[in-house]
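*** Backbone structure tokens ***
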Amino acid sequence: MKLSILFSLMILFSINGYSAEYTKLDDTTLQVTKTLATPSPTSNDYTLDFLKQQELDILKQRNEYIIARDKELVEVRELIAQAIALGIKTSLEIETEKEATLTEEK
């Protein structure tokens, strides 16, 4: 007999436009049944091992992404420092200097 009668939990996600029912199928498996705005529900079964591995994989990917973005930030900040050291200015700085020069000439 399916344990869904005893362990079923219905939570509505109005923000995401669907409702979801969570059911314990056995000691290691969670079943998620989503009902989207359209009337056709979907059902997926997940073992807890799979979900924990997914969590680890997502965290690893997130950490790798953060490391890559941090390296890019270091590179961009180095380029900014080199540009400033060479006297390169932003377009706003140039425009401000032009306006200041025009104001002084009047």
About this structure: Residues 1-15 have pLDDT under 50 and may be disordered. Residues 4-84 form one domain. Strands lie at 9-13, 18-26, 29-36, 42-47.
